[in-house]
Structures
1.
Amino acid sequence: MLRSLCLMAGLAATTFGAPLESRAVSAPPGGDITILNYALALEYLERKFYQEGINNYTESDFCDAGFDKEFYPNLMRIYEDEKTHVDFLSTALGKKAIGEPTFDFPVTDVHGFVGLAGVLEGVGVSAYLGAAAAIANKDYLTAAGSILTVFSLAAQFITGLAPNTNLPFKAFPTLTAGDPTKTGYKAGGKVVFKGAYKAAKAAGKSGGKVNAVFYSGLQTYYVPVVIGKNKIDYVATIPGADYATDGQPAPAGQVYITLSSADGKKVLAGDENTIAGVAIVEVIC
Ligand SMILES: *[C@@H]1O[C@H](CO)[C@@H](O)[C@H](O)[C@H]1NC(C)=O
């Protein structure tokens, strides 16, 4: 079971799912312009990302890097899909649609591109955007309540918003994960958040309980952090199989982490209690 989960997570991180099918859609209900604009911002982001991918790299770059012949045509198809999604949402939102933000992706080669595509497609964004394509159903969107987490993750690639954009989002203080073993993050192992204690202290946020919140697929885990020996970092234990008291699988594949004062019991992690994030780590099986 665990093994197949790991395999699936690995696949999700390295291959693209079939492009989203076009679905029969009708106009959005108009109630939640903000949520729809978050969705539009994410669609802009994906469109730009794939556009840069097909412009920056050639088919033979991907082949040379070991990806098969289908890879490049697939990227082009995904890009076309993203264009359609942007058009759909912009048209549906009409005058209320935000303009395109500017983005900066920390990518310099084919491997970096595919890795980041895995992050964007792997867990949150594609699951959420699947819903965005069928945006007519507002309840469905609201139920995909991970939008803010997803958006905060995506927000780190946004360098500027278009004028008159009314899109409330906070870019949280950066969270940088370090691997103390240098052999890869493993369930049950440690992750170091570099400088995070010092930063939280400076911001007056180190006083109460601080939890590392791990998002892996649909699972969320709250793990208390400890202050590193250097009195600069925070350190957390990556949830392991022993965490699975309530049957949760251990995190695997691309995992997102935030620091939060929420405990996951009385209070759930959200924008208002997030201290830093989002860090992205790859947990290997
Ligand atoms: C594409 O190339 C530009 C210019 O070098 C660079 O700024 C950008 O990050 C690259 N994007 C991707 C996705 O590779």
2.
Amino acid sequence: MKRTKITLDENDIPKHWYNIQADLKTPLDPPLHPQTRQPITPDDLKPIFPLGLIKQEASTDRYIPIPTEVRDIYRIWRPSPLYRARRLEAALKTPAEIYYKWEGGSPAGSHKPNSAVAQAYYNKQEGIERLVTETGAGQWGSALAFSTQLFGIACRIYMVKCSYEQKPYRRILMQTWGAEVHSSPTTLTQAGRDILKKDPTTTGSLGISISEAVEDAATHDNTNYALGSVLNHVVLHQTVIGLELKKQFEVLGKYPDIICGCVGGGSNFAGSAFPFVQDKIKATHPNLRIVSVEPLACPTLTQGEYRYDYGDTVGLTPLLKMYTLGHDFVPSAIHAGGLRYHGDSPLLSKLTKDGYMEALAYTQQEIFEAAMLFTKTEGLLPAPESAHAIKAAIDFALMAKKKNQKKIIVFTNSGHGHFDLAAYDDYLHKKIPNGEYKKP
Ligand SMILES: *Cc1c(COP(=O)(O)O)cnc(C)c1O
């Protein structure tokens, strides 16, 4: 059968998440307390996270059950389809097969609800009445607004001021799902008031908004904090993508040669790739290439250092061992807002350092060209973040063409670009800055 779309049944939604910490050859270096530089304890995290998530953060159980309530919400859009990009293959005249896992069909339009729903659930379980978070362009904020609404938890979102003013549509979406959205810095927190006193006209930053959200959670008993990427429990929740993907390749009777995906904090790609990294660790598929793709404007994996660094700009969070460009690094204002983080998931960083995964970086001009070709052939409009993965898949398909190899290439298409049309407009008007990185 000539298949274009491999869909699974609702009963095929995974019943467990896959925890790669169980299969690491050497354990992850622990997060350190920002002041004492000693490994942090569960007690250090209790003021802002529920115990259910704190346990997952350090767990070495290989499979962690997905609660029924979470699976029931996943049913709205999961299992997500795996597409074969036949029209893109034809346009490239490549002998390679190109597949993509489409995460743009979720209510918030990206992979982020895979973790937001789980986080809302564990907080609800422990009696938390309110979740707070930060958001840049609004992708994570909208995922959390949707999820808290379904569990009947209040949600407050500190949205970076320049996005709040320039990108109203995601703010409206968050408010439609019942969240309270504030232009950050606010006068609601000490961190916000201090920054406003120093610089009343600041346009804000993700680092400032994180400081506000963490302070809000730490100073209210009924309130916790939620983070949309980087941490082990977030990556764990995203493994529903990779577990489904593996099953879809079983249905096809095939196994990929190359898997690629875009990396900001690493959650969508780690979630897609880790069930396959397991095969590499076990050496059942030693030749599989697992490739992270990032912007040249924020080249964390390709040009950063592997060391301990803070998760936020101010230096309030635990120190994480990861690839980093330095916690005070501020990338240029590229449209792929979700890929502007200075660090990366410690798990994805370690597996890259240990040689199971590799990384590539592209300019913004290149990734928009790839997105345009993809949209013209496949129809779906990708987020600028996801376009990084598309560019890599196209390059691998062209390499396969040069060598006349029938490679099987799969990438994760992490979200749709319907809220990013201003970025596409800039591309159409030849106004895309490449924002290349200059080493400090
Ligand atoms: C947030 C986001 C990303 C980057 O985050 P990761 O944690 O690296 O997955 C990528 N794509 C989309 C569509 C996003 O919303």
